[in-house]
Amino acid sequence: MEIIETLETCGLEDDSYQLHDYVDPDALEQVIASADENITVQFTVDEIPLEVSPDGVDVIVEDESQSVGE
């Protein structure tokens, strides 16, 4: 899953958190898949702010007009 890969890139080991404690991955996938391309869902996993869209997963940087994509 792209979210896990992005979190690992940020230095968060996959055994240090449970993704379902932060977001329902199945529901998120359904929302993104069924929505138009303009939707984004933002949430934070262990202090790492993420933005998920049909285009992929981005880490939100302090200046929200820019993000670091994977």
UniProtKB/TrEMBL annotation:
Organism domain of life: Archaea
InterPro entries hit by this protein: HalOD1
Domain Halobacterial output: 18-57
Entry-linked Pfam families: HalOD1
Identification of the protein by name: Halobacterial output domain-containing protein
